[in-house]
Each structure stands twice: as C-alpha cells, then as structure tokens.
Design a protein that fits this description.
Layout: E1 6-11, H1 19-29, E2 35-41, H2 45-58, E3 61-65, H3 71-79, E4 86-91, E5 94-96, H4 101-111, E6 115-122, E7 130-132, E8 135-144, E9 147-156, H5 163-166, E10 173-175, E11 182-186, H6 189-193, H7 205-215, E12 220-230, H8 241-247, H9 250-263, H10 270-277, H11 281-296, H12 301-332, E13 335-337
C-alpha cells in the first residue's frame, strides 16, 4: 500500500449543519490515498455522533473539543497531527469535485509551490459561480514626500463570475492569494514560519498567511483543474447560531484587525476604518434579515436597523461568556479519538 503524501485537515468555518455533505463529498471524490484529521470544535450532539460514527467507519483521526474554536486554532490542532509532505486545509462547508486533489498535488510537484489554491466556487448550484481564482496579497508603501504609509493590498480575482464563461481563460499560474476554504500547503513551510497565527481569530487570516509564506520565500499558485465550492448559510439551523455569532463576533473581528495591523505595521487607513464601521454585517445578513423576512414576508429595512443594537448587546454577552469559560474548557475538553 502506498503511503499517503497528503493529510486533509477539516475544521469548522461558521456552522455545523453542512458537515455531512462536506465530509461525504471528500470520501466520494478523492481518488488518491490520503489521511484525514477532523477537528470538531463543539458541534451539537447530532453532528458529534455522526462524526464519531464516521471516524470509526472511515478510520480518520477525530479531535473533539466541547467548546467552540477560532479557525486558526482549529487548524493548528489538526496541523499538529500531520506528518505527510502536504497538508490540505478545508472548511466543513466545502464540497469537492471528482479528482479534486490530484491536480493540487501535481501542481506542487511540477512547480515546487508552497501553497496551491484550487478554483474556489461559492453557493448553489455548486461549482458554477467563482468565489476566488487567485488574487493579490502584499504590503506596499504609499510614499508622498517624507510621509510613508504601509498599506495592505488585497484583491480577489473573478469573484461572482461564471466558471463556464472563464473556463478557457483559467490556467495554472503563480498568484499571491489563496483562501482557507481550501488550500494545499507544503508542510515544511511551517518549520520556517511556525504555526498559524491564532491571534488573528476570524478575518484576514488567509491574507496574513499568504504574505507570511511569500516573505519566507515561498510561492502561491492557482490550479483551476481542481474545483471546490463553499456553501455558506443561510439557512442556518438553530443549533448553528451560537457558534455563528461567536465566529463573526465584533470582539473577534476587532482583535483580528488590530493584530493584523500591528503585526505588519500598517497604517490605520480607510481599509481598517471601513471594517470597523461594518462590524456585525454578516450577522445582519445571515441572521437578522432572514428572521425579519420570515416574520413579515418581505424586507423591512427599518426594523432590521432597529434590531441592530439588540444584536450588539447579545453578541457582546455571548462573547464575554465564551471568554470567561474558554480557559476551563480548554484545560479539560480536548478529546483526540485516534482511529487508524
């Protein structure tokens, strides 16, 4: 039997209710040998039981915590179990296409790339609308006389375009940007740069990682022969909502933005100011707006706006409660289920 070159690390993105579809697509459509580490950060009982049963059936390594995890924390827990040449980080709301892993490995072998992104699509129908086809991620100096400002350049290519319209134009090429929805990484890079930065808790973690890899001498490639799709909510199940609210909490986003700013010595420019103004926009789009529409059968923008202060108070309460209990939980609740 051939030893796998790749370990797939699955971790929670923003909900748990799509875990079955995502995991089953990986096992149905991965055609080369692989190992799998599944990080289950506090999923509800139904999902927990499903994952335990699948770990027993498929023989993957299941890591369970009884508290929620930030994305980079979850990925680092999985990364610590990896000893293969390559690691794939993939979120638990992603579905893959047949043979998706083969081109990523082939690209790494042919180019020597450190980090390879598939063509990432978004939403349903799956594999039709592009979310990310590479992009830009770097720090640049804005110089005007003696005034020098350090700014971040982040741009995603082809978002919202149809795959069918661009299929002939997409090609394997070097780029600067990949996203954690799905990426293949040469494991040896972590010997240079250390683990993922857990102080970046919920936003810009992919930009931070790509810049770090590039500055360490690594390269980033797009391989569009590999296609995956992330399927975001809504709808969310009621059991998803506590994690969703924490995952996209104001506190986690502010912590992430401040860490990203300070780490790269960036000027607090319009990029950051706009982010501060938009704190909580995901909760408004995914939680408040659908709730209002279900209640009244149509959009009610004024009511949405009136509910925002309530959302802020509830979000702060949930975040503070999590912060108070996190230490105790992390001391006792990491339960690795090593099934090989």
């Amino acid at each position: 039997m051939i030893d796998p070159q790749v370990t797939i690390v699955v971790s929670p993105r923003e909900r748990f209710s799509f875990a079955r579809e995502s995991l089953e697509s990986i096992y149905a459509h991965t055609e080369i040998p692989f190992r799998l580490v599944y990080v289950d950060g506090g999923s509800p009982a139904e999902v927990r039981r499903y994952l335990e049963a699948q770990a027993d059936k498929q023989g993957f390594h299941l890591i369970r915590t009884n508290h929620y995890l930030s994305p980079n924390h979850a990925r680092n827990l999985g990364l610590a179990q990896v000893d293969t040449q390559y690691v794939v980080f993939i979120d638990n709301d992603v579905v893959v296409t047949p043979g998706w892993l083969n081109p990523l490995v082939q690209c790494a072998q042919d180019t020597g790339a450190t980090l390879i992104s598939p063509l990432i699509c978004q939403g349903t129908p799956v594999h039709e609308e592009i979310h990310c086809a590479g992009g830009e991620a770097h720090i640049w100096l804005d110089t005007k006389g003696e005034n020098v400002k350090r700014r971040v350049r982040e741009k995603i290519y082809s978002q919202g375009r149809q795959v069918a319209a661009l299929r002939d134009q997409l090609k394997q090429e070097q780029t600067e940007l990949a996203e954690f929805h799905c990426m293949l990484v040469r494991r040896s890079i972590f010997e240079q740069i250390g683990p993922l930065d857990e102080a970046i808790m919920n936003t810009r973690e992919h930009v931070d990682f790509c810049i770090t890899v590039t500055q360490a001498g690594g390269t980033v490639y797009l391989e569009p022969l590999s296609v995956v799709t992330y399927v975001p909510g809504p709808p969310l199940k009621w059991s998803d909502i506590p994690f969703y609210m924490l995952r996209w909490s104001d506190a986690w986003e502010l912590t992430s933005l401040h860490r990203f700013r300070d780490k790269w010595d960036l000027t607090e420019d319009e990029f950051f100011k706009n982010r501060y103004k938009r704190l909580g926009w995901r909760r408004q789009m995914t939680l408040i707006r659908p709730l209002v529409r279900r209640a009244f059968g149509r959009p009610r923008p004024k009511l949405e706006k009136a509910l925002l202060p309530i959302d802020k108070v509830l979000n702060r309460y949930l975040t503070d409660r999590y912060a108070r209990t996190q230490f105790q939980s992390s001391q006792a609740a990491v339960t690795p289920s090593s099934i090989t």
